[in-house]
Amino acid sequence: MAPEQNKLPVITFNTETLNPSNGAWQSTSHAVRQALEDYGCFVLATNKIPSDLRDTVFTLSKDLFRLPTETKIKNTSDILGFGYGKYAFMPLWEYFGIEDGATLEATRCFTDLLFPLGNNAFCEAAFEYMKLLSEIHNCVLRMAFDSYGVEPKHYDRLTESTLYLARFMKYRAPNEGEGAIGLPAHSDKSFLAILDDNDVKGLEVEMRNGEWIHHEPSPSTFVVVAGEAFMAWSNGRVYAPMHQVAMRTTQKEVIRYSLGLFSFMRTTVEVPDKLIEDDKSSLLFRPFSHLDFLKYVVTEDGRTSKCAIKSYTGITVGATVDP
Ligand SMILES: O=C(O)CCC(=O)C(=O)O
Ligand SMILES: [Fe+2]
């Protein structure tokens, strides 16, 4: 599973790898864990999502962005990044979030709000697609947890409490004089994200050594990105990479659409004992409420911190005190 230089590792999920009693499950689980530790990110190749469903969701989601602004802004949320967003300082980027977006109920509420005359085709396709992404998400998590050898109760507790954010994003090409950055460099505050795009380049990921990988999209592949909450759960083993979206094109007609499913835990996130005992390392992150962490992220401290999760709940080990 060694990646080519300057490429993200590629991991395939198929019927063989997805059967836990098959040897391929174990080797794939280790590859997942390795990729999350080394890159915090990997390309997932799977045919679990039918290509016509994917095409339909991308086509129908374009309707969202054609709506008048007064309709778009009706999609609000108390949590930053969960509602509708378009900001003067990020002029290329626009997004809609659906809180609890892997459920039919929430997808229907969102659809009714934005399309009062109805848009059942969007609602059904978006729900079906996000539900499949949530299954892929759970599979990645289960593999990573298995590879760490933590008891299944840890997986059950977290996945039963998961709040999913489904996000629909659009990036336009820059006008003359505008920069290429659509979404500035950040690490995700989620546990894990599964991303997809309309095969238009743009996602760039920083490796541990500071070099940036420009991801080459392709149909039937997704990008899995670990967030800061996963890093804390793993006591710092999983890497939460900085990443950004850049529209490095002068062709005005190029538009990048992306879809993402981000997980947040409603229950306390804590490092399993096994991960401390294994290498006798010290606990680096106190147990924390993931949803409270999202409130911290928008405070002055949270916004200015180099790594929000470390300043929120990190424990400094072996700090020396100046005499
Ligand atoms: O559009 C993408 O591919 C990435 C989006 C992203 O990084 C985010 O929403 O946090
Ligand atoms: Fe992100």
TrEMBL record:
It comes from the Eukaryota. This is Uncharacterized protein.
